[in-house]
Amino acid sequence: MKSFILILSLTLVAPVVADAQLKLREQNLPNPDNEPAPVHPVPHPRQLKWQETEFYAFFHYGMNTYTGREWGYGNEDPRLFAPTAQPDPRQWLEVAARAGMRGGIAVVKHHDGFCLWPTGTTEHNITASGNEYGRAVNIPADFAAAAGDLGMKYGFYVSPWDRNSEYYGSDRYVREVFLRQCAELAEYGDDQFEMWFDGANGGNGFYGGRNDVVSVDRNTYYDIPNLRDSIHRVCPDCVMWGLGGESRWIGNEAGWAGQSNWSTENRGCAPEGNGMYGSEDGWIWFPGESDAKATDRGWFYHDGERVLSPERLFRMYLETVGRNSTLILNLPPDRSGRLPEATADSLAALGDLLKSRFGNDLALKARVCADSERKPGRHRNYKAGNVTDGSKDTYWATDDSIEKAVLTLSWRQTQKVHYVELMEYIPKGQRVKKFRIEVSADGRTWERVAENVETSTIGYKRIIPLNGSTSDSYGKGYDVRKLRVVIVDSKACPLISKLSVY
User: Fold this and answer.
1) Among candidate residues 358, 435, 437, 432, the one with its CA nearest the CA of residue 395
2) What is the per-residue pLDDT for 267?
3) 293: which DSSP letter?
4) pLDDT digit string (tens) for 451-479?
5) Nearest residue to 62 via CA among 11, 9, 111, 4
């Protein structure tokens, strides 16, 4: 009897002891959300924010505005800078905003070395201007303040080449002039999105009276690693264009990028020859920026200049922003320090075109499906509907083994369509190598459209005119009940964050 009671007691106590020793642990899977692996290289977060700016203005204003030159020699009398009215950077940005731009870059020092702020690095600045309007202005301060009021992004162009400085060509110039000027400009706001460093460096100049020819190796002379680190400590989201090596020149000043345009490139490549296209197997993330003029003369204001038509500017937009590039469009203020009325009118009309042609996304009314969807994870799914949910942080994806797939939109009623816009989820790299677009008027038979367009790369953004022309891009449009995007080839499983139809 005693043995039976002992056994019974142990039997009853054992589960209690086991439960006390048992601890539940949450399972830590290596990839709980089943996220696709990135395809390297991938962009830095500041490069992503920069790319999202898409379309912004360039404002070339300074000593050349009053001398009629494009490149000043450096020996200009500071008193020549004499605005006929108070310069108005706010008006510049207001015109840009009406055109649909999200920010602007102000030229505050060009190759002549004249600085549009009261710098401590040289007497060749606005404090020695020829009248009270010139002496009262501080372009970086006024420009940054106006951008803040208008909710726009802003940055500055500061020329590394200085044809005025007696120290140019020596280490002293870099330490005591150029780096200090960049640091001064960084203090005008820690939310700058871009600092622009022109590629023109070295040549003949005044150089403090030397009237010499100076040659420098720009890749080493400007102490780029120190410059980049110094700027990023103050302005963490500021992309350094040109010398800084964070975004590349698209390779021309005519406002077009290659239809095939990779955001990846190889360090040391010659952007003059390959900037329009990038390199599929490039080992750095080096996205392209297209700089172009909205007027028919130089970068600075010249009497008699004419502004390009809204349709011509719209074509530039299609051939840059619509081809995985950003567009920085130059709008030169005149000698009053304001943008001419004709420029303002043409840019407002451009803004109207962008709104009318890209203001009604027909994809939002469509049923979206795909022939393949990646298996969902714990907190994330990859369904086809993500391409029209309005979020930049979601995307449609396939399983890793599937690199060819089809996205289809269908409507209950016929729609008139002119453009298709596609965006990859580039935080995980650029992937798509080839695709095509097909439409169906009856919902059963399919017709390929835009056949004479290189439907190869997508990248951050690709806009395809369905009639295949950017010069007459709107056309009559197509009557469709269904539209599909066929991914033909991709580096890895495709990731599409947005599909819009206009």
Assistant:
1) 432
2) 74
3) E
4) 999 999 999 999 999 999 999 889 899 99
5) 111
Q: What is the mean pLDDT of residues 279-307?
A: 97
417 vs 347: CA distance, rounded Å: 25
Task: Check: pTM over 0.85? Answer yes or no.
Answer: yes
Query: What is the rounded radius of gyration, in angstroms, for the C-alpha atoms of the chain?
Result: 28
Give the whole-angstrom CA distance, residue 114 versus residue 108: 8
Region 260-273: mean pLDDT is: 78
CA triple 382-493-289, angle to 5 deg = 95
Q: Could you tell me the two tokens for 157?
A: 């162009």
CA distance 286 to 430: 12
Q: How many CA atoms lie within 13 Å of 456's alpha carbon, on the beta-carbon side?
A: 12
What confidence tens digit (pLDDT) does each residue in 13-59 have?
444 444 556 666 666 778 999 999 999 999 999 999 999 999 999 99
Taken in order of first residue, the domains within the chain and their CATH numbers are 45-358 (3.20.20.80), 362-501 (2.60.120.260)
Q: What are phi and psi of 356, to 5 degrees?
A: -70, -35
How far does Cα 57 stand from its chain's mean position? 12
Structure tokens at 142: 């006024």
Q: Which of 69, 171, 186 is CA-nearest to residue 119?
A: 186
CA 85 to chain centre: 33
| Mean pLDDT across 178-198 | 94
Edge-to-edge strands of the sheet including 239-242?
A: 239-242, 194-197, 153-158, 103-109, 55-59, 325-330, 288-293, 248-249
Buried residues in 165-193 as b, exposed as e (16+ CB within 10 A):
bbbbbeeebbeebbbebbebbbebbeebb
